[in-house]
């Protein structure tokens, strides 16, 4: 749970800071969550949930 909160805080800081593009911040956050095992690579790349 702490990894999720830290990733969320880092993402929010990246969005507020504004020096890094928003899509890069989102990809870095996705990478952190995937490498930590919170998201699986299959669920991260799946577009089945988008309708």
For the structure shown, list the relevant keywords.
mainly alpha; flat; 51 residues
Number of helices: 3
- Sketch the major β-sheet: none
Rg from Cα? 12 Å
Number of strands: 0
In whole angstroms, the N-to-C terminal distance is 28 Å
DSSP helix fraction: 55-70%
Average predicted confidence as pLDDT:
82
Overall structural domain count: 1
Outline type: flat
Q: Extract low-pLDDT stretches.
A: none
Class by helix and strand content?
Answer: mainly alpha
Describe what is shown at a glance.
With 51 residues, this protein is mainly α. The protein is 67% helix and 0% strand.
Description:
The chain is an all-alpha fold. The protein has one domain (2-44). Helix content is 67%, strand content 0%. It has three helices and no strands. It has helices spanning 2-17, 22-35, 41-44. The N and C termini lie far apart (28 Å).
List the helices and strands and how they pair.
Blueprint: H1 2-17, H2 22-35, H3 41-44
């Amino acid at each position: 749970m702490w990894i999720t909160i830290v990733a969320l805080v880092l993402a929010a800081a990246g969005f507020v800071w504004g020096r890094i593009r928003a899509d890069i911040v989102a990809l870095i956050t996705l990478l952190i969550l995937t490498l930590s095992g919170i998201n699986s690579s299959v669920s991260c790349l799946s577009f089945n949930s988008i309708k």
